[in-house]
Design a protein that fits this description.
The protein has a single domain, classed as Lipocalin. The chain is built from two helices and ten strands, in the order ααββββββββββ.
């Protein structure tokens, strides 16, 4: 007898694809590296997206039993507060071979909807980490650096030959989290 539970097969397939497999029972999952965990808390700042000045706020917390970090980003154009953007980023660690930098997997989903969602991969880098999300023949490379109570986040578009062009950059400071957040 075959039993079908709606959504279970899809959830299993998505989980397996996202995590690159399933951890064996009793095996601790590879959590986000310390450079990703350093984002925890709330941040507020300013930046520019394609040359347009914006304000930005981040709320970052561990999720999924502390196996992942969730970043909720909200930004608004300074010239037009109705011009708003929101993104939901999820970061997790990946198993690496001895001597390799800690690896990171990322999921980018934003207010452009499902067609803009992307799976990314990256690693710990000097002073922080970076994750690249494919988009056609190019990649959006996100670089994160936390130093003290300051966070720098830059996004460049890297083309197929490796040439990079600035897409966005932000400078943020630790901020109080909203009540209930």
């Amino acid at each position: 007898m075959r039993v079908s539970v709606p959504g279970v097969a899809l959830s299993w397939a998505l989980s397996s694809a996202f995590l690159g497999g399933v951890a064996v029972a009793g095996e601790a999952p590879v959590g986000p590296p310390g450079e990703v965990r350093a984002l925890a808390g709330c941040w507020s700042g300013e930046g520019a997206v394609m040359g347009k000045p914006v304000t930005i706020a981040l709320a970052v917390e561990p999720v999924a039993g502390d196996a992942m970090m969730l970043v909720e980003a909200d930004s608004r154009a300074k010239a037009d507060p109705a011009d708003a953007y929101a993104a939901h980023l999820l970061f997790g660690g990946r198993t690496t071979k001895a001597g390799e930098p800690a690896a990171i997997v990322g999921l980018w989903a934003d207010s452009f909807g499902g067609d803009g969602a992307s799976m990314g991969t990256g690693a710990v880098a000097a002073g922080g980490f970076e994750v690249a999300y494919p988009y056609g023949a190019s990649s959006f490379v996100n670089r994160w650096t936390v130093k003290g109570g300051k966070l720098s986040w830059s996004i460049v578009v890297r083309d197929a030959v490796g040439k990079e062009q600035t897409f966005a950059s932000y400078e943020l400071a630790k901020a109080a989290c909203a009540k209930g957040g």
